[in-house]
Amino acid sequence: QQQVKQSPQSLIVQKGGISIINCAYENTAFDYFPWYQQFPGKGPALLIAIRPDVSEKKEGRFTISFNKSAKQFSLHIMDSQPGDSATYFCAATPSGSARQLTFGSGTQLTVLP
Amino acid sequence: GAGVSQTPSNKVTEKGKYVELRCDPISGHTALYWYRQSLGQGPEFLIYFQGTGAADDSGLPNDRFFAVRPEGSVSTLKIQRTERGDSAVYLCASSPGTGSVEQYFGPGTRLTVT
Fold first, then answer.
1. Which of A85, A11, A46, A83 is nearest to B43 (CA)?
2. CA nearest neighbour of A102 among A17, A3, A22, A11
3. B103 and A41 in contact by Cβ < 8 A?
4. In the A/B pair of chains, how many CB contacts fall below 8 A?
């Protein structure tokens, strides 16, 4: 019930291409969906987040698409750059005071120069 | 301003020993979280503090794990009788508090139990 499933496990994209990472969830109590970027040896960094009352959110080259009925959301990275090479995690948190994050298993993105 | 800091950055200990991991949250953040990240996995929730009290410790794997936040700022995660399976990166995150959902992570402490 708490699981967030993420795919693909790894992704290789050419510079300038579009990177797409998908996540699906089961718990309908989730109401906040952030994406984190993590470089080796560093902690996860908040990239962009969305709430289920909107279907899309864009910040620069990063866009989240959200499908509430399908319980799916995805991250699109436009004009991918070698500096975007990192591990990306989707996450979700339920409504309420605790707000603990449930993370996906991660996608290792490599952007080739 | 300063982000979340964690010390030590690396800790190697022998099986059966006791360890303490420290987290300094962002100044003014009232909510603090501990997560554990095993190699190749996403972080897993351990415990959540709102102020000084542990509001949710449902993620602690067993009673060898304990965390405190006595003054509502710095937190210490304590692990007794460490086991090799405890080897992981322990991450701390802080959040402004009630009504705010964004969590900001520290760099983590890599714990290795030999």
1. A46
2. A3
3. no
4. 63
pLDDT, tens digit, 9 for 90 and up, residues A34-59: 999 999 999 999 999 999 999 999 99
Interchain contact, A45 vs B102, CB within 8 Å: no
Write the Ramachandran bin of B59: left for phi over 0, alpha for psi from -120 to 50, otherwise beta.
alpha
- Sequence length of chain B is 114
pLDDT digits (tens, 9 = 90+) for B69-82: 999 899 999 999 99
User: Counting beta carbons within 10 angstroms of the beta carbon of residue A94, is it exposed (0 to 12), middle (13 to 18) or buried (19 or more)?
Assistant: middle
Question: From the candidates B23, B57, B105, which should be mutated to test the interface with A, based on the most A CB atoms within 10 A?
Answer: B105
Chain B residues in contact with A36 (beta carbon < 8 A): 105
Residue-wise DSSP of A50-76: E-TT-SEEEETTEEEEEETTTTEEEEE
